[in-house]
């Protein structure tokens, strides 16, 4: 299987120039599916911490680069929405956040904020033993009590060290959201209305913004967030 990916065909979320060269690195299988950006691209093309794959491999072998609290040694490991990147030697911490146009961007955060990550609940199912399994947008699974209040499309904040849920943001009208895909990717506002569509069609969400514009998008494209996740407090 080829280790290269044509730049012209990479997902829109990848922060790469498409016409400078023919190929770029291909992401390994892992979190975030096809939208995951190889860590090498973040290190080399976004942060410019490495000039080559060889330099990136050397840096990763020092165990100073963490994703969601865990040291990473694979330069092709996918990085995606709401992941936490920590460069311990530099004392630098970033949250991967959807930018304008759908490209993933890095938001600087402090060390305390880097101890947990946000996840959108994309599936909820009962499992043997009287517990419920939650599946997050990046593929992570968690088990919670059957009578827990977590619902589909809710967002939770999960501690990186022990997977404890430390915050919960319900998916409901009035909540702060960001669009992570589509024409309004990167836009932030509050849910004004959730329009339930009969049948198998996607529900629509109308979002109001402070500037009065607002936008409408499908339910799949919005993620409930807290003000601390916008970067406005940095």
UniProtKB/TrEMBL annotation:
Q: Where is the Small ribosomal subunit protein eS4 central region domain?
A: 91-165
Coiled coil: which residue ranges?
none
Keywords from the named record: Ribonucleoprotein, Ribosomal protein, RNA-binding, rRNA-binding
For biological process, the GO terms are: translation
Gene Ontology cellular-component terms for this entry are: cytosolic small ribosomal subunit
Q: Does the keyword rRNA-binding apply?
A: yes
| Keyword rRNA-binding applies | yes
Q: Which InterPro entries match?
A: Rib_uL2_dom2, Ribosomal_eS4, Ribosomal_eS4_central_region, Ribosomal_eS4_central_sf, Ribosomal_eS4_KOW, Ribosomal_eS4_N, Ribosomal_eS4_N_CS, S4_RNA-bd_sf
Q: Specify the domain of life of the species encoding this protein.
A: Archaea
GO MF terms held by the record: rRNA binding; structural constituent of ribosome
**Where is the Small ribosomal subunit protein eS4 N-terminal domain positioned along the sequence?**
2-32
Q: Name one Pfam family in it.
A: Ribosomal_S4e
Family statement drawn from the similarity comment of this UniProt entry: Belongs to the eukaryotic ribosomal protein eS4 family.
HAMAP family of this UniProt entry? Answer: Ribosomal_eS4
Q: What is this protein called?
A: Small ribosomal subunit protein eS4
Q: What is the lineage of its organism?
A: Archaea, Methanobacteriati, Methanobacteriota, Stenosarchaea group, Halobacteria
